[in-house]
Amino acid sequence: MYNFELTREFARNLDKEDRLAKFKERFYINEGEIYMDGNSCGLCSKDAEETLFKALKAWKELGIGIWTKGGYFLYQDTLGALMAPLLNAEPEEVTCGNSTTVNVHQGILTFYHPTPERNKIVMDDISFPSDKYAVISDIRAAGYNPDECLKEVKSRDGEFIYEDDIIEAMTDDVCIVLLPSVLYRSAQLVDMERITKEAHKRGIYVGFDLCHSIGVVPHDFKKIDPDFALWCDYKYLSGGPGAIAGLYINKKHFNMKPGLAGWQGNRKDTQFNLYQSFEHAKYAGGWQIGTQPILSMAPLEGSLNMINEAGLENIRAKSLNITAYLMYLIDEKLAKYGFGVGNPREDAVRGGHIALTHDDALRINEAFKANKIIPDFRYPNVIRLAPAPLYNSYEDVYEMVERIIKIMENKEYENYENQNREGLTNNI
């Protein structure tokens, strides 16, 4: 399917043909730096800066009037409508609020109604652990024992989720299945539609964590039909570090009571009546909790406008092509130095990043940063590389591989200690 060549000129020709190449100039990129960490914290764009400054200007000039005169009181609905096309969902099914982990709590506490006969939640054992921390506390809050009610499906190899094993775990005592769409470490794209269909056959609710797919992998929620989903907006969506998170609630559940209630989830026509009884709004906005942090939300507007302008299908096409090109260069140029590819190679089951593996990955990762390559290390042997379609070029990928060859030829990684896994600096 892919027909690549090893020269820099070939990379430059790919860039000339790239319909998304023009977007790179709209991002702030440090000179000489190759930024490959868009799957952890996306770069700042001029578009995001503009909508942030617009909100800041409204606050400066209007004070409390920012909510009404500035038009920001229902900003979450505006952003939800901009995000809905990324999921092929209805605008009223999508909202912005809280952090990802708070939205895990919101989803679980909404759909988890355990009984002595049916009280288990199915998860895998290798996805990002914050979701599990939340689920454990939610099971405990419901008065049940997490050791008994969290049904953890072990990965066969510690790298991938096997859908057959998840389906086998869908026994009569299961209430909810919660899985990632893309595994944060190995970039595996889970078969969400199959999981959802099998769960619904058994009367089980399904939720997905989209943190590593939203904005780089199109999802068709009208076809997949999950019950809820959640995600962060600071990776491929470039909403800013710690940006507001996203939440999807399937419209067939709008009459359910939110697990976590707050005044922003109240009906809008009675919200300022300040009744002591909660009347939740019958759309995704009804799952809002507290007052929105507008300055945390504002950059996302610019980013979403740009992503919709570029077209998510175009973004996915480039993502698949540029990651395939990177794998080709790893195979042809880096394998002899002990590097491997730890992610699926097939397009249909691959997310937006490459898991570059090496037995000495931690020290090599430090050498990358010293050579102005910005990667993302995951213990014990994975360096995640995410060529973001809107601001990484094919020549960026080629140049990065050339710098890696230099690092390995000169053994520059030997200048760094092979420290243990403790500490933030080893992981970013």
Automatic annotation (TrEMBL):
The modification N6-(pyridoxal phosphate)lysine is found at K235. One of its GO terms (biological process) is L-tryptophan catabolic process to kynurenine. Its EC number is 3.7.1.3. Catalyzes the cleavage of L-kynurenine (L-Kyn) and L-3-hydroxykynurenine (L-3OHKyn) into anthranilic acid (AA) and 3-hydroxyanthranilic acid (3-OHAA), respectively. It holds the Pfam family KYNU_C. This is Kynureninase. InterPro entries: Kynureninase (IPR010111), PyrdxlP-dep_Trfase (IPR015424), PyrdxlP-dep_Trfase_major (IPR015421), PyrdxlP-dep_Trfase_small (IPR015422). GO terms for molecular function: kynureninase activity; pyridoxal phosphate binding. Keywords: Hydrolase, Pyridine nucleotide biosynthesis, Pyridoxal phosphate. The keyword Hydrolase applies. Homodimer. GO terms for cellular component: cytoplasm. Belongs to the kynureninase family. Pathway: Cofactor biosynthesis; NAD(+) biosynthesis; quinolinate from L-kynurenine: step 2/3; Amino-acid degradation; L-kynurenine degradation; L-alanine and anthranilate from L-kynurenine: step 1/1. Its cofactor is pyridoxal 5'-phosphate. Pyridoxal 5'-phosphate binds at T100, T101, F128, P129, S130, D131, D209, H212, Y234, W263, T291. The gene is kynU. It catalyses: L-kynurenine + H2O = anthranilate + L-alanine + H(+); 3-hydroxy-L-kynurenine + H2O = 3-hydroxyanthranilate + L-alanine + H(+). Transmembrane segments: none annotated. Signal peptide: none annotated.
